Structures are given as C-alpha cells and as structure tokens.
Inverse folding.
C-alpha cells in the first residue's frame, strides 16, 4: 500500500487535518480508519499497521490494515483469542512488545502461530478510547525487534484519539445510537470490501493489497464511498475492468 510522502512535520499536520475534517463533514468510516493506519505507519516508522474495532456485542473485528500480512496477524490474535492487541482493548491501555519471542509465556497460542509465519517480531498496540471507554485498538507492527520512543507512542495515541472522537461524534450520540450504527456499518462494509477485494484480485491477477489500493483509487477519483464501490463489484453492477483500467 502506498505510504504518505513528505517530511514528518508535513505528514503530521496532514494527518491531523485529514482526521479532523471528519468532525465537521460526512465521511466513509473504512476510509477514515485506513487513512489513520497509513499515516500512523508512515509517521512512526512501522512496517505495517492495523485497526480492530469492537462490534455491538463487544467482539473485536479487523476493520483496516496497511497490507495483507498485517490483516493475517491480526486475525491470528482473534482466532487464538489472545495477543497484545486484545489485551490493549480489554485493558484500555497501550501494550508494547519489543520482541514477540519473549512474550511466548504470556500469549503461547498466538506467539506460536505468529512464529510459524515469522513476518513480524514487535508490536505496539494503542487503544481507541474516549472517557475510559475502549472501542478498539490501533496496532503498529515491526519486522524486527523494536522499542518505539515515547514521543512516537504519544503521537500514535493522539492519532488514535482523534479517530475515536470522529467515530463517536455527536450525530450518533444525538440520535441515541452512540456506537452501534457507526461500528456495525464499518464491520458490514469491511466484509463486503474483503469480498470485492478477492473478486478483483482474481479477475485482474492482482495481489490482495494491489486490489484494495485499486478500489481506493477508483473510489477517490469518482468521489464514491469505498464500500459502495465494493458493493458494486460484488453485485456485478460495476465491472472489475472499470477499476483496474486507468
């Protein structure tokens, strides 16, 4: 996936402006969260990132990742019902793991699964929370053992906090729905997007990451929501060639 370019200061300003825009305008939840992941990876020198959100029943779901490897390792945690990102969500506090190998006693099933496919060795999980309520986690992955500086962790948490406020903004609160409508819409959209991504990848012989980026590019250039583009593909209202042809 393409990472934002520019100096760190420019990226930081662009990230906060982009996320803050969602507080005063309509927005696509999945695009917001994918943008948050992209900016976080680019700003904080991570190799990949992902976001998990809790559904209305309190169960975590993967809703945005920077690449397919990140999605797979997030799913490993959910499948094994343990891992740093789950602890971050349930505890509402950051979880920093400089080397997953050294955490085998803490999360034996997850670490065993992760080491069987050794792509990432370190993770920094930051809660998406507001007034003590955690709704998910932003997870930053590293290929090599890594301890993130305190300043970088503070920036990552600030980005996560802005995104949390956007998700829980007043329109949903005013309607008395608080989180359920926004989160359920995000989770439903993600299922459709995953289906469309697979369909496009198979049709155009693309990787899953390339297929997703093609869908995002098409959605932006046609001023459409990513979920609507995905739905068009899965319902055959939009031909895959329209996505991959410049």
């Amino acid at each position: 996936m393409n990472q934002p370019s520019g100096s760190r200061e420019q990226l930081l300003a662009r990230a906060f402006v982009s996320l803050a825009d969602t507080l005063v305008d309509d927005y696509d939840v999945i695009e917001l969260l994918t943008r948050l992941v992209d900016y976080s990876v680019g700003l904080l020198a991570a190799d990949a990132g992902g976001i998990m959100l809790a559904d209305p029943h309190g169960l975590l779901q993967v809703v945005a990742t920077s690449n397919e490897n990140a999605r797979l390792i997030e799913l490993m945690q959910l499948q094994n019902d343990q891992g740093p990102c789950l602890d971050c969500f349930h505890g509402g506090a950051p979880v920093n793991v400089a080397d997953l190998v050294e955490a085998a006693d803490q999360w034996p099933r997850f670490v065993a699964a992760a080491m069987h496919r050794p792509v990432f060795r370190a993770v920094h999980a930051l809660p998406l929370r507001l007034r003590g309520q955690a709704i998910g986690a932003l997870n930053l992955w590293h290929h090599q053992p890594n301890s993130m500086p305190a300043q970088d962790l503070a920036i990552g948490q600030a980005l996560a906090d802005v995104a949390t406020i956007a998700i829980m903004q007043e329109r949903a609160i005013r309607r008395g729905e608080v989180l359920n409508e926004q989160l359920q819409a995000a989770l439903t959209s993600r299922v459709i997007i995953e289906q469309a991504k697979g369909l496009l990848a198979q049709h155009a012989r693309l990787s899953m990451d390339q297929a997703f980026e093609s869908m995002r590019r098409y959605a932006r250039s046609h001023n459409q929501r990513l979920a609507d583009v995905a739905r068009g593909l899965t319902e055959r209202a939009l031909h895959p060639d329209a996505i991959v042809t410049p």
User: Anything to note?
Assistant: The two ends are 18 Å apart (CA to CA). The chain has a mean pLDDT of 87.
